[in-house]
Amino acid sequence: MRRAVTILLLIIVALGISLSLAKIPFGTPKTKVGRHYIDEGIKETGATNIVTSVVVSYRGFDTLGEVTVLFIAAIGLGVVLADSGREKIRKTESASLVLSTGCRVLFPLILVFGTYVFIHGHLTPGGGFQGGAIIASGFLLIYLGCRERRISRVASNLAESLGGLVFVVIGLLGLVFGSYFLLNFLPKGTANTLLSAGVIPIIYIAIGFKVGSELASIIDNLIEES
Amino acid sequence: MTFVVSSLVILMLVGAVAASFFRDLISAVIAAALVSLAAAILFYFLQAPDVAMAEAAIGAALTAAIFIIAIRRTKRYEE
Question: Whole-structure pTM over 0.90, yes or no?
């Protein structure tokens, strides 16, 4: 009975979605703003990667909200899983030789790759969120492979706070030097070089540090508790 | 091209259905991670490499790890 109702509901939902999407022509541009980003994005922001110019420049304020949501999630997890005074019963059996050696070799490479991804966010695909997630997956590898190692809470909190602070301060500097929050007040430089696009690389490096340390501290909290 | 994309979509469907039918939750998490991985490759073929990187790192790696840590604290098999 329940299964029949579920299948019926699923069919109704699928029918509704397909009927409402059927009227929209597939693949044709429906708004003018997307065309504007593609045509004028490089000239207006200096970033070769159009996605980055939208995420950090045109829709920079939304990105600040997104980073804040992640921050609140990490804080909430930290509050829920905070040390409630019970002693650690976790037994630390060391990982196998293959895993621990592999993690020692791979961890620096993953770290360098993540850093590359968020430093070159305005030139190549990727950016702060992607680079931060890659760095966090490197820390996950450390927790699996080298279990006696722990990331320093102080360092991760510092990186997180500094990342958020740099983002907001640069946004406010836009108000000081110009007219609106997150104004790109630095010179744009020549497109397609590392030092270009004004404040975009700085903001993306800040986001990379913030996202990486937040996700790493989420994993840290969860593993400490289990 | 069409073949690659359609086989990835079929892989995603199979992974999603398998994830909901497995009684062993670790297998279900791995099937869900497979969906994310296929989605990441699909995003790459649809010329969205930014989304593909985020999906591969967060969807396939970190989410699966967090689920497995949670399963270790609770029960592995669904009744």
Answer: no
